[in-house]
Design goal:
Length: 203
């Protein structure tokens, strides 16, 4: 078995001689593959992949990367995915330690409001493992590590020092992201009334 990371734009626009030409057959294949994805712990992650991932990639709103496993007979399984985007945010640094505040000042601009920083950041918009795959070898740590490694390579090219994400207010999620050096900087409520913690990490 071999795992590989695939940017869905490389599938949707596979003609190297005409990179702006959409490959309709590949789009159909992606949609068929996405129908095999399930996320028992978070329906939003499943819905995004099936409903929005392709259109958002076409519009360059966000880009989804697939973790695929190819086995014998060229059978390919979708193990998981993550979606990345650029997104400006405001961070209230009033409760941050001096060390974190100094690091923030290196990659953010302080607004006219005291302790409020405007940041051009990289967003991990979605992160999900396919629970439909029996004995899925992909762990959350491996999936997040792949996303962070890709963001680190982007940082070397375009700059930026912050990655952030939003997660449901669950203790296990906080522990998971805390082990990976994310810390809480805010909270947000969606239009549907769901509450999220906002977490960031310095790259």
């Amino acid at each position: 078995m071999q795992e590989r990371l695939v940017n869905i734009l490389d599938v949707l626009y596979s003609d190297k001689h005409n990179p702006r030409q959409l490959n309709a057959e590949n789009e159909k294949s992606l949609k068929k593959m996405f129908e095999t994805f399930e996320c028992e712990k978070n329906e939003e992650i499943e819905t995004f992949l099936k409903r929005d991932a392709i259109e958002f990639a076409k519009q360059r709103i966000s880009i989804t990367n697939l973790v695929l496993e190819t086995g014998n007979g060229d059978k390919t399984r979708l193990l998981g995915y993550f979606t990345l985007a650029n997104k400006p945010i405001q961070i209230n640094a009033a409760s941050m330690s001096g060390t974190k505040r100094r690091r923030l000042q290196r990659c953010a601009a302080e607004s006219e409001q005291k302790n409020i920083f405007n940041v051009s950041s990289m967003l991990i918009a979605q992160l999900g493992k396919n629970s439909a795959v029996k004995n899925n070898p992909l762990t959350g740590e491996l999936l997040l590590g792949s996303a962070l490694a890709l963001l680190a390579s982007v940082q070397r090219v375009v700059g930026g020092g912050i990655v952030f994400l939003e997660c449901e207010q669950r203790e296990k999620l906080m522990q998971f992201y805390g082990r990976n050096d994310f810390f809480k900087f805010g909270e947000r409520s969606s239009s549907e009334g769901k509450n999220y913690f906002q977490l960031l990490k310095f790259l």
